[in-house]
Design goal:
heterodimer, A: alpha/beta, 8-stranded mixed sheet, 13 helices, about 45% helix, B: alpha+beta, Ubiquitin Conjugating Enzyme, 4-stranded antiparallel sheet, about 30% helix
Chain lengths: ~425, ~160
């Protein structure tokens, strides 16, 4: 019945969640097809110089940390020093902080978050899974839980694992937890782990966001704090903004997982982003797809002559496959019921989205709606010329030429039938 | 132009395989971006048997962005604004979520279709979502005074058929 099924059985349409992941996570810092790569090559000597100068400043930061006592003055000096090193931390709406909320909830934007949070305010960061190396060098105010290894194991198995964390009544500074399960790029929010919401009945979300003059991701899925730091030192400037958002209360009588969900939604809507509902498998699948297309692009970028890949689908055509892939998705978005391999094949001929769409709509391209065999790479061909899914029930005629008159008649007959039924049921 | 082609394709599909109780098509031959639809109220719902007219206006970049939908027939429903605009998740793009409770999967994307929108509206007629109060009075009445709500709906059904 559905005219546009989400998934035609033979259509390898990208899962919707992939599109969401595209905008939310990064696997690679550099996209090879973009201009940025060229820009980066030009920038490289300058960046290297900056990097070397800034590494020596890291040493000064260590000295400040060891000789000046922790406090406002130390933080002030470090903020300036990190600013010169290219990591500028800006705090917004600090005055709006609800002092009753001793638990702060921050999103994850890079492996340097701990440093950023400590530069932004006096706090204790809670990290159950791993305290990144550089953060632990700089700051020792991490909450330690007793059986870290056990918790790690349990967290791997069960994302809603409860951890017994408590804030001592005497604690004068806020505790910061980062309940997100993955590092997003600030354009979405992944689902929250529950443990930070078992501690207090009120939490204050703080939103971290970043900006760079060159659009190179702050972090990637597989990066370490070391690589994140190196890129920060290499690039001219990274501005991280911490915005204090209104606090969130737990609803009476509801559990920690409801509280986590409520805070998750609230924070996402205040940040004007989506909550990313994905499983680990989704991310793994997406990651491998990204890696594959990245290596294709890399090849295309490295050599624009000669055969790019040996895949039979792309045979000896000269157009780089990524371009065809992009166009294929555009056509699928208009005609979701046509198998991708058929679209791709036609695009190899036309190299034009509009022409291909017209070809399918007017039935000029014949294809076999059966799924392609995986080995052949799917050479459709033969088969029916009708792009729509076949229905067994008798069809009404359709022609655009009959035009509006037939539509008016169908409306009239629907209304008349409805009237008859109504009168039969209720009497008049 | 991809939008026009897709609209023609959807019109064809809807004419050849019409969902039960729904008729939809362009208002006139020379403008495919403004449609009219007749939707029959689902059985066992307060709107059972009524035929409600609505208009859909498509953006030039359809299907990247969803159409706007508005009832022309008078209707009293928690998810329909007083001016007839329909407030359901499938008509919102993933980017805008004014109420903060919809998952992105429920919202508009190019793989959705006019048919899916119309079927969503049918199920909306059967099961109002009182979380999103486009019409606060209707929401309240739906929750607190169902008999009164059903009575108003029955009146509108009769009116929609031109039988009053």
């Amino acid at each position: 019945m559905a005219a546009f099924p989400n998934h035609h059985p033979s259509t390898p349409v990208r899962p919707r969640v992939f599109q969401q992941l595209d905008g939310s996570l990064n696997v690679h810092r550099i996209v090879f097809s973009s201009l940025y790569a060229l820009l980066l090559i030009v920038y490289f000597p300058f960046g290297l110089l900056l990097f070397i100068v800034r590494v020596t400043m890291l040493l000064q930061a260590f000295i400040i940390l060891s000789i000046i006592p922790t406090g406002v003055f130390q933080r002030f000096l470090l903020r300036i020093l990190f600013g010169v090193m290219g990591l500028v931390v800006v705090t917004k709406n600090w005055k709006r902080r609800n002092t009753a909320a001793r638990m702060l909830i921050a999103n994850k934007i890079s492996k340097l978050d701990h440093i950023v949070l400590h530069l932004a305010m006096e706090c204790t960061t809670i990290s159950l899974v791993d305290v990144p190396l550089f953060s632990s060098l700089f700051y020792h105010t991490h909450l330690k839980t007793e059986s870290l290894n056990e918790i790690e194991e349990a967290l791997k198995k069960l994302p809603e694992f409860d951890v017994d964390v408590s804030i001592p009544d005497s604690a004068a500074i806020p505790y910061v937890a980062q309940p997100e399960s993955i590092y997003t790029n600030g354009r979405s929010l992944s689902q929250f782990n529950v443990w930070p919401f078992t501690v207090e009945d009120i939490v204050q979300p703080v939103a971290l966001s970043w900006w760079r003059p060159i659009d190179i991701p702050f972090t990637t899925l597989d990066s370490s704090d070391f690589t994140d730091l190196c890129w920060t030192l290499f690039l001219p400037l990274t501005i991280v903004t911490m915005t204090v958002l209104p606090s969130v209360d737990a609803d009476d009588g509801k559990g920690a997982s409801d509280f986590a969900k409520k805070a998750n939604k609230k924070m996402a809507s205040l940040m004007n982003v989506d909550v990313l509902k994905v499983s680990k498998q989704d991310i793994e699948m997406w990651k491998s797809e990204m890696k594959e297309s990245h290596s294709l692009m890399r090849k295309a970028f490295g050599s624009d002559t000669g055969p790019l890949i040996s895949d039979s689908q792309f045979s000896s055509m000269g157009t780089p496959p990524p371009e065809i892939e992009r166009m294929t998705y555009q056509v699928i978005s208009v005609l979701p019921h046509i198998p991708a391999h058929v679209i791709r094949k036609d695009l190899m001929k036309t190299r034009n989205v509009d022409v291909t769409v017209t070809n399918f709509l007017e039935g000029r391209v014949k294809f076999d709606p059966a799924p392609p065999s995986s080995s052949s790479g799917g050479r459709g061909g033969g088969g029916g010329a009708v792009p729509q899914p076949q229905k067994s029930k008798p069809k009404e005629k359709f022609s655009l030429e009959e035009g509006n008159r037939a539509f008016q008649e169908r409306k009239k007959s629907l209304l008349e039938n409805a009237r008859k039924r109504y009168i039969a049921k209720h009497g008049q | 132009m991809a939008a026009l082609k897709r609209l023609i394709q959807e019109y064809k599909e809807l004419t050849l395989n019409p969902p039960e109780g729904i008729v939809a098509g362009p208002k006139s031959d020379n403008n495919f971006f403004e449609w009219e639809a007749l939707i029959t109220g689902p059985e066992d719902s307060p709107f059972d048997g009524g035929v409600f007219a609505a208009e859909l206006v498509f953006p030039q970049d359809y299907p990247l962005n969803p159409p706007k939908m508005k009832f022309i027939s008078e209707i009293f429903h928690p998810n329909v604004y007083l001016d007839g605009r329909v407030c359901i998740s499938i008509l919102h793009t993933p980017g805008d979520d004014p109420l903060g409770y919809e998952t992105a999967a429920e919202r508009w994307s190019p793989v959705q279709s006019i048919e899916k929108i119309l079927l969503s509206v049918v199920s909306m007629l059967a099961e109002p979502n009182d979380e999103s109060g486009a019409n606060v009075d209707a929401s309240k009445m739906w929750r607190e005074n169902r008999d009164q709500f059903n009575k108003i709906a029955a009146g509108l059904v009769k009116k929609s058929l031109g039988l009053t």
